[in-house]
Structure prediction request, 274 residues.
Amino acid sequence: MAQQNEIFGIQYSEIQDLLVKVGTNIILAIVIVVAGFWISNLVTSAIRKVLNKSNTDEGLVTFMSSFTSLVLKVMVVVSAISQLGVEMTSFVALLGAAGLAIGMAFSGTLSNFAGGIMILVLKPFKVNDKIMALGERGIVKEIQIFNTYLHTEDQKVVILPNGPLANGNITNFTRQPLRRVDCYFNLELNSDMEFIKSIVHTVLSDEKRIDPEQKPFIGIESVHAGCILLVVRVWTKTEQHGEVFYSLNESIFNRLKEKGIHLSETPATLPTVK
Prediction:
């Protein structure tokens, strides 16, 4: 009978106790993970609400929310591993031994984390700014711990890594309250410039979105074989730049056409940097 109550010299009762203990630890570990992730989401949501109510910069809100969520979930996972009976001293020693390899493997990720902090501290842009960086152009919607999310004009979502973004060239289109509008027109060489300027001035006087304190400029940008490149420069509020640009182009074109002034069919090369 004694042999029937043993397996490889281990008593059935001991096996049952071990299975109960292991099963209990596994169940508790699962409960810790499920409950811990749920609580971490609640805490993250609460932090986001508190920061929003305190009028904190939206970039800092998204950064702190994602950072808090990551830290809490790492703590939950560590607690679950401890519940399974893994000695944390051994676990920490294992992480330390693998630290160099992990650091090299995730050097880009760590760089992105540092870049996110630099962006929040130096503030080259903030949420809802329109920027151009890393060859992409769009409106900043989120600044997270590793990436920044842009929404383009055609509603594409562009994800930029914070490391290269913080160290690269950034053009911020919305940082200043006013922005210049440049409109170009190809005119024939025999065009009456004084008459054309008077027409353009009339159009500009009708456009109420132009800043009245900034004097408009109308002049010849360059002269090419077969045409004159006329430039019209005005200033408007940054958020109205696109509207004023397209409205002025259409209004000036229509008014010149009404006055019998024809644009040149010879294309001129527009300036690349203005």
